[in-house]
Amino acid sequence: MKAKIDELEINSRIKNIGDLYRGISDFKKGYQPITNIVRNEKGDLVADPHGILARWKNNFSRLLHVHGINDVRQTEVHTAESLVPETSAFELRRHKSPGIYQIPAEF
Q1: Sign of the torsion angle spanned by Cα atoms 67, 72, 76, 81
Q2: Residue 92 falls inside a structural domain
Q3: pLDDT tens, position by position, 9-27
Q4: Residues 28 and 2 in one domain
Q5: Is 80 contained in some domain?
Q6: pLDDT tens per residue across span 59-77
Q7: What is the spatial distance between Cα 5 and Cα 26, in angstroms, rounded to a whole number?
Q8: Domain check: are 26 and 42 in the same one?
Q9: Which residues contact residue 92 at a Cβ distance below 8 angstroms, ignoring those fewer than 6 apart?
Q10: What tens digit of pLDDT does each residue of 74-99 get?
Q11: pTM above 0.85, yes or no
Q12: Residues 28 and 38 grouped into a single domain
């Protein structure tokens, strides 16, 4: 604890505000154990790192699996045609009324 207090004092003295506030926050929270435990498909707890990674891999593979598309390059992309007619130089005068779209010419 003495080492933590000394570290806070040093950060305060050298005006290292980020580390100072982070240290104060950690000091106020106290010890917080980190748990790396997940549940598998059956509901059993898994604690070993390889089992946890395998569980996350299976979970995201299932969530991100897209049905019906075999190859993304074969999909068609459709674009909408512009509904706004081209603007002429005459229409770009300043202080002109915005028209049916309510967009001033200055924009």
Answers
A1: positive
A2: no
A3: 898 889 888 888 888 888 7
A4: yes
A5: no
A6: 888 888 766 555 555 556 5
A7: 11
A8: no
A9: 105
A10: 556 566 666 666 666 665 566 666 67
A11: no
A12: no
Residues comprising the chain, all counted? 107
Domain count, the chain: 2
Dist. CA 34–CA 26, nearest whole Å: 14
Using DSSP bridges, classify how beta strands 45-46 and 38-39 pair: parallel, antiparallel or unpaired: antiparallel
In angstroms, rounded to a whole number, what is the distance separating the alpha carbons of residues 81 and 76? 16
Instruction: Identify the pLDDT of residue 78.
Output: 62
105 within some domain: no
Of 50 and 87, more confident: 50
Domain hosting 8: range is 1-32
Separation CA 94–CA 72 (nearest Å) = 47
Per-residue HEC secondary structure of the chain comes to CHHHHHHHHHHHHCCCHHHHHHHHHHHHHCCCCCCCCEECCCCCEECCHHHHHHHHHHHHHHHHCCCCCCCHHHCCCCCCCCCCCCCCCHHHCCCCCCCCCCCCCCC
- The answer to whether residue 13 sits within a structural domain is yes
